[in-house]
Specification:
By secondary structure, this protein is α/β, with parallel strands linked by helices. It has a ten-stranded mixed beta sheet with strand order 6-5-7-25-19-22-21-20-11-12, sandwiched between helices. A five-stranded parallel beta sheet has the order 14-3-2-18-26, covered by helices on one side. Helix 1 packs parallel to helix 11, helix 1 (about 15-25) packs parallel to helix 14 and helix 8 (about 240-245) crosses helix 10. Pfam families: GDI.
């Protein structure tokens, strides 16, 4: 059996895992990154149509729902994985279901068209937007991964509507948009304008003084906080604070769901929680364009973030193995000493960081609190111009809002005249059972009903794709992570600490909000800092203080002359000065 040796093995190529691998590699550690999938990204993979029909965990739903087996039709690669691992293996829990032309009979011609233009599609399993001013943007700049990335801004203000209704309205992001709004009554407009003026005075900014919103400067106090004055009465609930400002329930929904992109958890926010989210939205508006957008989307799909990080890791010596899973973990006195891979390679290592559960080893599951349910549709009908987000306020107060993400030619994810619509929501319910997209139950049925209520041509839907993602809470594994404080700093000596077993399970994200890249950066920073023995505090996802310490990257001394992310440094400097 061939034998290799690495300081750390990272099992998985999701965003958090790839951030960890890149950071450790840049810090001089020998890292092996392994994934049993045939492509990079894990939950954040992006597919062409040809990849959809060949990927190992993708299941095709037959066009005729009569007499369908429970499992549906599996690709050869998928069946091979089942043969290798067994259907009850945790590695095979995550399935993706798809159906061509789910709401019409044009199956053959649609299939041919999708195949012909396969390479022009980039369909995310979990699409992510990034705040224009955020830790993620800073990280891409400092790590030189911006060399491999290009972004587009969302086409304008976020949109809001109600579940089951076709009308979508702009979320108010300026005085002008407040007065133009058809979503608010005249009295509500006056209340909102008064609130915004008070907020502008509180944070010493004239952010809503004009429609442009292209420059936002917050005063920073001597302790480095942008939010001076916000901590007063910080224990007051967000909803109580808004009601004290005479907000109606519709205004609370607009602010909490549409601007702050919160779910029903906003009812538990403190005043400070809500204001920080509101200000994160405000400070990102118009940074990269004049359309009032506050978000960035990765050209060619979310998995390009992973590709950029993996390229960066490879440049600094990281080794990658796809189509490979961890077959067994070897321990010595309860501590990791090595792993055996499915390709019959033994890897000597004392540190294993895993996104996936490893059957028979370290089986303490990270708590799964909820699931993110995602259905993606390829259609010929756009909901709005360019890539953007719409929030559908739920009909029931017990349901979470539905987020609708549209990507298109401008984002490099669909050919001209085609659009990808992702509908997603968080729910405690497990993955829905599907035999056909015309025969669904549970959360999937709710998402499909919401899709059919939107102003789209249902019959023109060329493809439907359904998947789920486990959601949890990083605090569920904090004790395990904290136990490895300084573990990699001890690479040249043995430790007798029985809690330092050499295994960290990356907990699933909380998914609040599910549409933004926030938690992944924070969690990767926390894990790396602990492993390297550096001081770390719980990070506020909406605060930009000390962004230079998010991960242990240093900007390369030699700049790439023709960066594909043109003039990004100049733009950041211009709007941050």
């Amino acid at each position: 059996m061939k034998e290799l040796e690495f300081d750390t093995v990272v099992y998985g190529t999701g965003i958090t895992a790839s951030l960890i691998a890149a950071s450790l590699t840049r810090n001089g550690f020998r890292v092996l990154q392994v994934d049993f999938h045939s492509s990079y990204g894990g939950d954040y993979r992006t597919f062409t149509f040809k990849q959809i029909i060949s990927e190992q965990d993708v299941v095709k739903l037959p066009e005729d729902s009569q007499g369908i087996s429970e499992e549906g039709e599996q690709s050869p690669a998928s069946q091979q994985l089942v043969d290798q691992l067994g259907k009850n293996n945790p590695l095979y829990e995550h399935k993706v279901f798809y159906q061509v032309s789910p709401f019409s009979d044009n199956v053959d011609s649609t299939h041919e068209s999708l195949l012909r233009e396969s390479s022009r599609y980039a369909i995310d399993l979990w699409p992510k937007f990034i705040y224009s001013k955020s830790a993620a943007v800073e990280l891409f700049l400092r790590s030189s991964s911006d060399t491999y990335l290009r972004f587009c801004s969302n086409s304008g203000p976020i949109l809001i509507g109600r579940e089951g209704e076709p009308e979508l309205n702009e979320v108010c992001n300026s005085k002008g948009s407040i007065f133009r709004s058809k979503y608010l009554e005249p009295m509500e407009k006056r209340i909102l304008m008064k609130f915004i003026n008070e907020l502008s005075d509180l944070v010493n900014t004239k952010v809503f003084s004009s429609d442009s919103l292209k420059r936002v400067d917050f005063e920073v106090d001597s302790q480095g906080s942008r939010f001076q004055g916000l901590e007063e009465d910080g224990t007051e609930l967000w909803v109580d604070f808004l009601r004290r400002k005479n907000f109606t329930e519709k205004m609370i929904e607009l602010t909490s769901h549409g601007i702050c992109l919160g779910g029903n958890e906003y009812k538990e926010w403190t005043k400070t929680d809500g204001l920080k989210r509101l200000l994160k939205y405000v400070e990102s508006i118009g940074v990269f364009g004049d359309l009032g957008g506050c978000l960035l989307y990765t050209l060619y799909g979310t998995s390009d973030i992973v590709h950029a990080l993996c390229r960066l890791s490879a440049v600094h010596g990281c080794t990658f193995m796809l189509n490979t899973f961890v077959e067994s973990v070897h321990t010595n006195e309860g501590k990791v000493s090595g792993i055996t891979l499915s390709n019959s390679i033994f890897v000597k290592t004392k540190m294993l960081i895993s996104e996936y559960l490893i059957p028979g080893h370290f089986v303490e599951h990270a708590q799964v609190l909820e699931h993110l349910h995602v259905i993606s549709f390829v259609t010929k009908t756009p909901l709005f111009e360019g890539p953007n987000i719409a929030v559908l306020v739920p009909r029931s107060e017990n349901d979470e809002p539905i987020h609708v993400i549209q990507t298109d030619l401008d984002s490099g994810t669909a050919p001209k005249g085609a659009y990808v619509l992702h509908l997603m929501t968080v729910d405690k319910a497990p993955p829905s059972h599907l035999t056909s997209f015309n025969d669904t139950t549970g959360v999937a049925a709710r998402l499909i009903d919401a899709y059919k209520s939107l102003p789209v041509e249902i019959e023109s839907t060329a493809l439907a794709l359904y998947t789920t993602h486990k959601l949890g809470d990083a605090r569920d594994k904090i004790a395990q992570i904290d136990a490895h404080q300084g573990f990699l700093g001890e690479k040249d000596k043995e430790t007798n600490d029985t809690d330092k077993v050499g295994f960290i399970q990356i907990p699933p994200p909380k998914g609040r909000p599910a549409v933004l890249l926030l938690e992944e950066v924070s969690l990767a920073h926390y894990i790396c800092a602990r492993l390297l023995g550096k001081e770390v505090n719980n990070l506020d996802l909406y605060d930009r203080i000390d962004l230079d310490k998010f991960l242990d990257f240093e900007k390369a001394e030699e700049e790439v002359e023709s960066s594909p992310f043109d003039k990004l440094d100049e733009i950041i400097e211009k709007f941050s000065s």
